[in-house]
């Protein structure tokens, strides 16, 4: 009899609850558990499921989904000789596998890595890079929004860890569930696409704080306060591609900018808390602007101190990145932190896997990054080491696969 991930969790949960007895009567406990018809309930953390298919919202999961504790980003290049038909077959396989995994089910020929876990808020998001369209004979259907990002003075990009034909974002609240998805999708790609680069990230685990709150980055700063909210009147207009797009296959989709940003934590941590707050423009303890209030209090960019200087310095990161400073430009930031060990000088190889979403990268990420590039007080503490831009189509309709309107339209 085939066991689903949910079903097997019930058996493991039963054995765990009787842990003191297992040592003396393991066989009896195992037999009892295997004969249990009704699986034990998953915890809230494990049972949360995010739908793969399009429902009321047309966009893929992993964009407005709450941040998960674990993440993987990966880019693939199509194998030599792989054409549009091969790409379509791969996206069909990937979509089928993602749907099974996000529902907490084990796909065919499963490795068993996550058999005892529920969905754990797993999301799998697929995107196409600039090079994908030329390699599949679809150059005429490549959106202008996918034109390469400009060079920035702070860039020190590694081409081997940048861009790619195909992009996958994985998030889950359980590390094994996230890795399981990564492994399954990599196996699905065999013969059709080869891994170009892969990065691992993490966030605070849901429930680790007394109440839900904005995440902190590895600098200890509250990170994401000014994010657009789905309740905003113009949220969809800013984040998702509208009806007027020339490429109708992208209607309801979004564009993801991905950056590996290493933080110079040794340098940052030598600064006093007062200096750090002036670099950011916000208090470190609660994320409130230096002009007062709480995290959500609007910044008073025109407020001056007794010395006649702006309370929020002119080069403070929060001031320069604010929509008010960028003609209303905004992007939905949804990053993961990373730590990949230590460098030869002993400094941590750690920072932010920056992922942001917008309807038009030129009017959002590029506009804001250009301004940051000209004088952001935070820039001396950051190194941009990898970059990518991907077109993320809408979610698959029932019985369909992600990207079919592009590949078969």
From TrEMBL:
<dbReference type="InterPro" id="IPR006313">
    <property type="entry name" value="EfeB/EfeN"/>
</dbReference>
<keyword id="KW-0732">Signal</keyword>
<dbReference type="Pfam" id="PF20628">
    <property type="entry name" value="Dyp_perox_C"/>
</dbReference>
<keyword id="KW-0456">Lyase</keyword>
<protein>
    <recommendedName>
        <fullName>Deferrochelatase</fullName>
        <ecNumber>1.11.1.-</ecNumber>
    </recommendedName>
</protein>
<keyword id="KW-0408">Iron</keyword>
<keyword id="KW-0575">Peroxidase</keyword>
<keyword id="KW-0560">Oxidoreductase</keyword>
<dbReference type="InterPro" id="IPR011008">
    <property type="entry name" value="Dimeric_a/b-barrel"/>
</dbReference>
<dbReference type="InterPro" id="IPR006314">
    <property type="entry name" value="Dyp_peroxidase"/>
</dbReference>
<feature type="domain" description="Dyp-type peroxidase N-terminal">
    <location>
        <begin position="60"/>
        <end position="203"/>
    </location>
</feature>
<keyword id="KW-0479">Metal-binding</keyword>
<comment type="function">
    <text>Involved in the recovery of exogenous heme iron. Extracts iron from heme while preserving the protoporphyrin ring intact.</text>
</comment>
<dbReference type="Pfam" id="PF04261">
    <property type="entry name" value="Dyp_perox_N"/>
</dbReference>
<keyword id="KW-0349">Heme</keyword>
<feature type="domain" description="Dyp-type peroxidase C-terminal">
    <location>
        <begin position="214"/>
        <end position="396"/>
    </location>
</feature>
<dbReference type="InterPro" id="IPR048328">
    <property type="entry name" value="Dyp_perox_C"/>
</dbReference>
<comment type="similarity">
    <text>Belongs to the DyP-type peroxidase family.</text>
</comment>
<dbReference type="InterPro" id="IPR006311">
    <property type="entry name" value="TAT_signal"/>
</dbReference>
<dbReference type="InterPro" id="IPR048327">
    <property type="entry name" value="Dyp_perox_N"/>
</dbReference>
């Amino acid at each position: 009899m085939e066991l689903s991930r949910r079903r097997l969790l019930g058996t493991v949960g039963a054995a765990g609850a009787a842990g003191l007895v297992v040592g003396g009567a393991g066989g009896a406990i195992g037999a009892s558990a295997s004969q249990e018809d009704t699986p034990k309930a998953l915890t809230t953390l494990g049972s949360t499921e995010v739908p793969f298919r399009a429902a009321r919202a047309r966009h893929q999961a992993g964009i407005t989904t709450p941040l998960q504790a674990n993440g993987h980003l990966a880019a693939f290049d199509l194998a030599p000789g792989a054409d549009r038909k091969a790409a379509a077959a791969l996206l069909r396989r990937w979509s089928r596998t993602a749907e099974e995994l996000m529902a907490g089910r084990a796909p065919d020929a499963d490795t068993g890595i996550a058999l005892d876990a529920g969905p754990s808020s797993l999301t799998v998001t697929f995107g196409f890079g600039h090079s994908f369209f030329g390699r599949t004979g679809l150059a005429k259907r490549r959106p202008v929004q996918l034109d390469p990002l400009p060079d920035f003075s702070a860039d020190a990009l590694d081409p081997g860890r940048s861009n790619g034909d195909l992009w996958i974002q994985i998030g889950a609240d359980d590390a094994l569930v996230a890795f399981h998805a990564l492994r399954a999708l990599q196996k699905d790609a065999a013969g059709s696409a080869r891994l170009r680069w892969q990065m691992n990230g993490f966030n605070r685990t849901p429930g680790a704080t007394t109440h839900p709150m904005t995440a902190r980055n590895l600098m200890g700063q509250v990170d994401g306060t000014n994010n657009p909210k789905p309740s905003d009147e113009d949220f969809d207009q800013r984040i998702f591609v509208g009806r007027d797009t020339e490429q109708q296959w992208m209607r309801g989709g979004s564009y993801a900018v991905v950056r590996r940003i290493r933080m110079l934590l040794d340098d940052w941590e030598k600064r006093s808390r007062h200096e750090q707050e002036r670099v950011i423009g916000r208090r470190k303890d609660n994320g409130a602007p230096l002009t007062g209030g709480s995290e959500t209090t609007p910044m008073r960019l025109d407020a001056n101190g007794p010395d006649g200087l702006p309370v929020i310095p002119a080069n403070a990161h929060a001031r320069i990145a604010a929509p008010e400073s960028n003609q209303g430009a905004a992007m939905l930031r949804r990053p993961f932190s990373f730590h990949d060990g230590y460098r030869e000088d002993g400094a941590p190889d750690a920072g932010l896997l920056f992922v942001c979403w917008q309807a038009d990268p030129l009017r959002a990420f590029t506009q804001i990054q250009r301004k940051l590039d000209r004088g952001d007080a935070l820039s001396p503490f950051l190194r941009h080491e990898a970059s990518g831009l991907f077109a993320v189509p809408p979610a698959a309709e029932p019985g369909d696969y992600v990207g079919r309107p592009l590949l078969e339209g």
